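Q: Is it fine to ask for two folds in a single conversation?
A: Yes, each is treated on its own. Send the first.
Q: Here.
A: Result:
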Amino acid sequence: MTKDVEQIVRLKTAVTRETYKDFIPEYVLDEEALLINDRIEKYKQTTLNENGFVNYVVTKWGRVIGFVDANITGFKEHYQKLGYAELFGIFVDSRYQGKGLGKKLFKKAMAGLKVLGSTHMVIYVFEDNRVARDAYERWGGRLDDHTEYREREKQTVVCYVFEL
């Protein structure tokens, strides 16, 4: 996985830009792209070196086309107190979207978190991201009443809870 880190972060940046271009300010997306080298180093230092992370990568011909990452403890205090895991994101190259790869990565992450002892998982998503929200609802997610407003992105974030 270490050798895939640069491709993972670059894919995440590209998918984020494409997915959010209609409802996140462009300057935020530009900043993400400009900070890509910092993000690569941070990913190496945290995600790959801390216990409790679940990461799955899909490659085709040596190229990363999808990945998912999650953590058994999550980062939001509200759900940490409940012992819920957190799925941070599912990222699939636009050329492979709509073929079930995102759902497979999602199920793989759920299974990995369950093996680590989690009973529930949360996913935060921008309220305007109907594609992701529709998928999470189809996959059994329950919209929780916990929301937050992110000033930087000018968006409300909603949360889905899943039983593992």
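Q: Second one now.
A: Result:
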Amino acid sequence: MTQTDVAKPRPKTRVRILDACKELFNERGPMAVTTAEIAAAVGIQEGNLYYHFNRKEQILEALFTEFDAALRIAVIADVGRSEKPHRYGAYLNDCFAMMWEWRFFYRDTVNIFSLAPALAPRIGALIDDIQQQIRRVLDSMVSDGILSGSPKQLDQLVVNALIIATYWMDYLRSRRGIMSVKREHVDWGASQVMSLYLPFLTAKGHALFNTGLNPAQHFAAIPSNTLFEKK
């Protein structure tokens, strides 16, 4: 028997529970998913589920720990260590890819705070750290000749970008009636954030973001009837 013939060990039950909950919560929201559905998705009895997590609140707290770590890697990464200017386009794309992967944390904030109130200060601390890091990234873009703006303008840019990124899915639901968020809707949000940067881009910056990394180019190729489909 070769090494490739050996079956990979099955993930631990706790990991499988969290993976299943992430998928279910993304699809329907944590409030709508029952413990019976979670157990069925994992292939275990409800009693076994309660052995690992007594309450849905504990599941959300465990998922947030994963989300916090993943978002810090994507957003609080030190892009300044790379000498390639194209890293800035990838940086924005990575941030919105995280929004899609963990969309229930953006879409269902009110329900999450109701189910797991202890998460409120943790989420606040994460947003504060993200805001500081994005400001540092903008300073790097200025140093690289990609962005131009006064310190006050850059501070405002960071806040406005965070407002769109944080509440984009609320806007889709409340203003567009889009209840089933798709990947193209998240890409649309990325294009809205990108539009905030455009007035501050230098000639070098415009050349950089016309290389195919601009999320707005992806958005422009999406049929409007798909974006505004209400479900």
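Q: Anything structural to flag on that second result?
A: Two points. The chain has two domains: 1-54, 70-227. Residues 1-54 form a domain with the Arc Repressor Mutant, subunit A fold (CATH 1.10.10.60).
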